[in-house]
Write a structure and sequence with these properties.
The chain is α+β, with helices and mostly antiparallel strands and 248 residues long. It contains seven helices and eight strands; from the N terminus they run H-E-E-H-H-H-H-H-E-E-E-E-E-E-H. The strands form three sheets. Strands 1-2-6 form a three-stranded antiparallel sheet, with no helix packed on it.
């Protein structure tokens, strides 16, 4: 038992590794160039991600695969546990109950007769796993993203925490170094200078790939780093599987 749940967890870990590799390649994907606007006159450093749309789609697909595998691992572990310790409650208990509130989670368990068939399992879910907001919020968010991914791709967004290490000289040759504030969106990004400034170093971008605020998930997930969030979900799913496996 629990072999299928472990296989799903392992598959999710592989997808997370693939996602991390893809995101780590982002600093090598952007281009930087100097553009002149003769009408002002002014010059700008332009930072861009050419051909980024297919990359974001691929990240969305991998993210969906991770979320599906983790949520399914929890369901597989739940089914194996119910079959083992509460076989009379297997009908209507195909999915692990994740709810918005503790009251709703308890009602789902009682509705499936888990409280009667296996008090230890009933107690494990409500007292240890706590699959509701105010209990294990990350588990609830995993479920929310699982539902959201059924309706639309969870397209991520690229945000730049800042452009660091920009170096310029003024008309007298005096050097200046500086960074930018965070910049939102996929770009292109522009940093403007007077025409008589000489740009010595265009700097480097610090990049984050985050969940889109329009993804339909809970507001607490907005602007959440995709890779870090999926790693958290993986740990949460592993914890749930382990706790269910220990029920006697």
């Amino acid at each position: 038992m629990y072999e299928n749940a472990r296989l799903k967890l392992h598959r999710a870990e592989k997808h997370i590794a693939d996602l991390t590799t893809a995101i780590d390649s982002l600093p090598h994907r952007y281009t930087s160039s100097i553009e002149i606007d003769p009408n002002i006159p002014a010059q700008s450093i332009k930072y861009d991600f050419p051909g980024i749309a297919p990359f974001l789609t691929e990240v969305a697909l991998i993210t969906g695969d991770v979320i599906h595998n983790l949520r399914t691992a929890v369901d597989y572990a739940w089914i194996d546990t119910v079959k083992r310790v509460a076989p009379s409650a297997i009908i209507g208990s195909a999915k692990f109950p994740i709810r918005r509130t503790a009251t709703e989670a308890e009602a789902a368990l009682r509705g499936a007769k888990i409280d009667v068939a296996s008090p230890p399992l009933f107690d494990c879910v409500l007292s240890q796993i706590k699959p509701h907001l105010g209990g294990d919020d990350a588990l609830v968010m995993l479920h929310a993203l699982y539902i959201a991914d059924k309706h639309k791709l969870l397209l991520p967004i690229i945000n730049v925490a800042g452009i660091n290490g920009i170096e310029v000289e003024n008309e007298s040759g005096k050097p200046f170094k500086g960074d930018t504030n965070p910049i939102h969106g996929v770009g292109p990004y522009y940093v403007d200078f007077l025409m008589d400034y000489r740009i010595k170093n265009k700097g480097e971008l610090t990049i984050f790939v985050e969940f889109d605020e329009e993804s339909g998930v809970d507001p607490s997930m907005e602007r959440a780093d995709v890779a870090d969030t999926l790693l958290l979900f993986s740990k949460i799913a592993l914890n749930v599987v382990g706790r269910l496996e220990c029920v006697r």
